[in-house]
Design a protein that fits this description.
Elements: H1 12-38, H2 46-76, H3 82-97, H4 100-110, H5 116-139, H6 146-172
Helix pairs in contact: 1-2, 1-3, 1-5, 1-6, 2-3, 2-4, 4-5, 5-6
Length: 173
């Protein structure tokens, strides 16, 4: 299994984008699977959930990429050069990859491997784990105490687990 790391030689502003976009995708995906859990049964089909997840993740990553270009224009007074556009594109595509496993889980429910409810719960759990990995990548070399690192991890995972609890309660109610 490949160790989750930030590529060697990555500049600090690129690390910010790398982590930021994955947080956006994880929280967007988590919100989408939660909304699907609360939705009417006709809106909880695997096809609908798959499409909603795909559109939501593409939408949030497109918005983040556009905001990077706009911010570059505002700060540097010029359009990003080829290298910067490559970094923005690479960051966006990397963030999109964060939704592959959740989309595949929903796809498996589409194929009848398990129910949409199970797929949504597993997809939500996958996004919570992704958030944990991002927080770990962010804090592991930070100049903060071990207790502060654990607190940051606990806060983000706690938020994610609360969302999952709401998802489970939605199904029970």
């Amino acid at each position: 299994m490949r160790k989750a790391t930030i590529p060697e030689g990555t500049e600090p502003h690129q690390v910010v984008g790398y982590l930021k976009e994955r947080v956006y995708v994880a929280f967007t995906g988590l919100a989408i699977v939660l909304a699907m859990s609360f939705g009417e049964s006709d809106h909880r089909s695997s096809q609908y959930a798959f499409t909603a997840l795909l559109l939501g993740v593409v939408g949030v990553t497109s918005a983040a990429s556009a905001s990077d270009v706009i911010a570059h224009l505002a700060v540097h007074k010029e359009f990003p050069d080829r290298h910067e556009l490559f970094v923005i594109t690479k960051t966006t595509l990397g963030a999109l990859s964060s939704a592959v496993v959740p989309a595949a889980l929903i796809g498996l429910s589409w194929l009848g491997v398990f129910s949409i409810d199970t797929a949504l719960l597993l997809a939500g759990l996958t996004f919570v784990v992704a958030l944990g990995v991002v927080v770990w990548l962010a804090v592991r070399n930070a100049d903060i105490t071990g207790e502060q690192q654990l607190a940051a991890l606990a806060i983000i995972l706690g938020i994610g687990l609360l969302v999952l609890a709401a998802q489970v309660l939605a199904k029970a109610g």
